[in-house]
Amino acid sequence: MNETYLIDTHSHINMVENISTDEVIKNALSAGVKKIIVPASSTNDIDDVFELSQKYEDIYCYLGIHPEEAKDWDDGILNKIREYSASPKVVGIGEIGLDYYWDKSYVELQKEIFIKQIQLGNELNLPLNIHDREAHKDTFDILKEYNKNSKVIMHCFSGSPEFAIECIKEGWYIALGGVVTFKNAKKMKEVAKIVPLEKLLLETDAPYLTPTPHRGEENQPAYVRFTAEEISKIKEISLEELAKQTTLNAEKILNI
Ligand SMILES: [Zn+2]
């Protein structure tokens, strides 16, 4: 009953290459990370991450298409997600959003499929796991205009403290990953400081964005612990307290 554990709320364990899924889960458990949510990003991923969620008790999934995969979109994806969402292991729509970092040539298409997926989340009453890379204003404006009833998680939040405050005012949640452990990540440390504990979630975005002291290696859910430790220091609270509240937040938002 009183066991404290962590949840990795965004982890592409289907993309981890150096260790098997069984090892990923074993390492996570020994680091006190009990539940893992795996987002889909491409059309192929949807089947893969759904299967993972069916196979492993403590793995859940978000289903959706990443903005960088927008060109592969077809409306049949909506029906597929509707069908899969009958499973309680499908806990959100994600990762969805806007990404202006690599290629801005299909921004309009990104926006169009972002909106369709927001509406799907609303229809299914599922939370939205949001990818926003260098697209803060458009992401915010579209969510504000189109999202009616879904809870919003800003995955791997990368905006300013001011933008975090704007998001929180909307009732959205801020998920922080390994970047907060980087020595020179002043902005993210400031975000960690100001986000109220009740609005905070933890994640790894594995296999990417590996936290210190494992930077340079492949990331895995077990390492969410380093992010939790860093944030607890920044917030001047115990790791126990941080773990308890962020886990409670995730369980409440995702209904797990
Ligand atoms: Zn991701």
Quick one: CATH superfamily?
Answer: Metal-dependent hydrolases
Distance between the termini: 16 Å
SSE ordering: EHEHEHEHEHEHEHEHH
The share of residues in extended strands comes to: 15-25%
Short description:
This protein is of the alpha/beta class and 256 residues long. The chain has helices at 21-30, 43-55, 76-84, 107-124, 136-146, 161-169, 186-194, 224-235, 239-254, and strands spanning 6-8, 33-39, 59-63, 90-99, 128-133, 152-154, 173-176, 200-202. It has an 8-stranded parallel beta sheet with strand order 1-2-3-4-5-6-7-8.
Question: What would you note in describing this structure?
Answer:
With 256 residues, this protein is an alpha/beta fold. The protein has one domain: TIM Barrel (Alpha-Beta Barrel), CATH 3.20.20. 42% of the residues lie in helices and 16% in strands. It contains 9 helices and 8 strands. The protein has an 8-stranded parallel sheet with strand order 1-2-3-4-5-6-7-8. Helix 3 links the parallel strand 3 and strand 4. Helix 8 packs across helix 9. The longest helix has 18 residues. It starts with 5 loop residues before the first strand and ends with a helix.
Give the arrangement of secondary structure elements.
Elements lengths: L5 E3 L12 H10 L2 E7 L3 H13 L3 E5 L12 H9 L5 E10 L7 H18 L3 E6 L2 H11 L5 E3 L6 H9 L3 E4 L9 H9 L5 E3 L21 H12 L3 H16 L2
Parallel strand pairs: 1-2, 2-3, 3-4, 4-5, 5-6, 6-7, 7-8
Helix pairs in contact: 8-9
This protein binds zinc ion (ZN).
Zinc ion binds next to loops.
